[in-house]
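// run 5 | inverse folding | seed 20
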């Protein structure tokens, strides 16, 4: 299946209402994932979209859904449902739908844990067109009889790999089995692990595969450095790094909830001592915080009133703040994919970004694995404690450099791929069951 890739939103044939909303949001041209997913989605095809967060992935499914919704007065039951792995991502996706829906009355409901069940139930009773939620809370509503999926024509599995990683597969399958057989399914994922492929093979019909992951994974707009540092010197090195960089907005990643809370407290006590840093507002997010506390911190991060966020991998995925300028891996992540998703919090939508990773003695092997994963060598930062013996073997560095210079990526890197209508009644192939039956 080949199609011309649109270079502007006008080429996608969107309604005037949607074009006005996009213009107000400052969206000038579709990102690669948007340009390739939107046309297929508008035609009713099932789609597998492979791309990391921060590439405009949400709009790639929100736009075609919004363009095809029935007015609420004609259908009060949910027509589309978007499943996401975390509460934070649910709030983010909900917000994107609301912004893109400006100009056309649209009812979009966020259904996630940590929110009032009674308020969600009341909204569902009043009528909702789009539901955005986490699998667990969606199942809760289904079991209570407050959420009907009988009129669903589009299901979106966003961050599918992450949802499967954290054990949501049984809930996802229960939800999919409750949806009408003749529906459209859009699966978005940063990676296509075997479990994701199995899910796609079982529940998607002849999906179009849009693969933007190879380009995304190279994180071309992000400068990536590492600092060699002894464990007992990490905090002082962090202070020195912050004083040198004075980041407009940064996320500092720690491995544990306890370590995150400890570092947050240390920074609160020290930053005010330095004139160049005392204006920085510091916040923290970890698993021990309740949802209202986490929502408050994310709001501050988005509106720019928070400049330093100390966090665990709870924000490694599923949060899209385009103003993050710096990422600091105070602790190395548990695996290479977590590194990719952490670093992906900066350099959003083509902006420049920089990431620093602290590496202690004995962690050279992990650093080398990360470099294999991204097919790129990290730069040794001058703030490093200059070691006589590097924390990784010279042979491994030379091997990777040779691969990069001759254009050979390690086998572990990447996956190879293959007139205006009136809104909300655009070309709805998904309505024509006859067409879908022909394709079956």
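// decoded
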């Amino acid at each position: 299946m080949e199609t011309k890739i649109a270079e502007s939103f006008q080429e996608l044939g969107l309604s005037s209402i949607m074009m006005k909303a996009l213009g107000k949001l400052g969206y000038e041209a579709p990102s690669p994932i948007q340009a390739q997913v939107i046309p297929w989605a508008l035609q009713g095809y099932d789609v597998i979209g492979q791309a990391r967060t921060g590439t405009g992935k949400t709009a790639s499914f929100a736009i075609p859904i919004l363009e095809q919704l029935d007015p609420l007065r004609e259908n009060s039951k949910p027509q589309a449902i978007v499943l996401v792995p975390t509460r934070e991502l649910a709030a983010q996706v909900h917000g994107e739908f609301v912004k893109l829906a400006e100009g056309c009355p649209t009812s979009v409901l966020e259904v996630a844990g940590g929110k009032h069940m009674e308020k969600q139930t009341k909204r569902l009773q009043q009528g909702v067109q789009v539901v955005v939620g986490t699998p667990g809370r969606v199942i809760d509503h289904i079991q209570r009889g407050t959420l009907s999926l009988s009129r669903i024509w589009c299901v979106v599995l966003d961050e599918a790999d992450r949802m499967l990683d954290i054990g949501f597969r049984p809930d996802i399958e229960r939800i999919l089995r409750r949806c009408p057989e003749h529906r459209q399914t859009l699966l978005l994922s940063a990676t296509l692990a075997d479990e994701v492929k199995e899910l796609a093979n079982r529940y998607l019909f002849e999906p179009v595969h849009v693969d933007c992951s190879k380009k995304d994974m190279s994180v071309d707009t992000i400068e990536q450095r590492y600092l060699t540092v002894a464990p007992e010197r990490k905090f002082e090195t962090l202070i020195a790094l912050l004083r040198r960089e004075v980041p407009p907005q940064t996320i500092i990643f720690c491995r544990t909830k306890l370590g995150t809370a400890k570092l947050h407290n240390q920074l609160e006590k020290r930053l005010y001592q330095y004139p160049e840093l005392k204006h920085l507002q510091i916040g923290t997010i970890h698993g021990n915080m309740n949802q209202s506390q986490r929502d408050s911190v994310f709001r501050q991060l988005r509106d720019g009133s928070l400049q330093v966020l100390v966090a665990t991998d709870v924000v490694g995925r599923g949060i899209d703040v385009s103003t993050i300028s710096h990422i600091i891996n105070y602790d190395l992540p548990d695996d290479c994919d977590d590194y990719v998703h952490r670093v992906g919090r900066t350099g959003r939508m083509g902006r420049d970004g920089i990431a620093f990773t602290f590496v202690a003695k004995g962690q050279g092997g992990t650093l080398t694995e990360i470099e294999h994963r991204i097919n790129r060598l990290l730069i040794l930062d001058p703030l490093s404690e200059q070691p006589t013996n590097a924390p990784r073997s010279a042979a491994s560095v030379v091997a990777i450099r040779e691969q990069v210079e001759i254009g050979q990526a390690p086998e572990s890197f990447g996956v190879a791929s293959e007139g205006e209508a009136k809104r909300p009644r655009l070309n709805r192939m998904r309505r024509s069951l006859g067409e879908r039956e022909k394709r079956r």
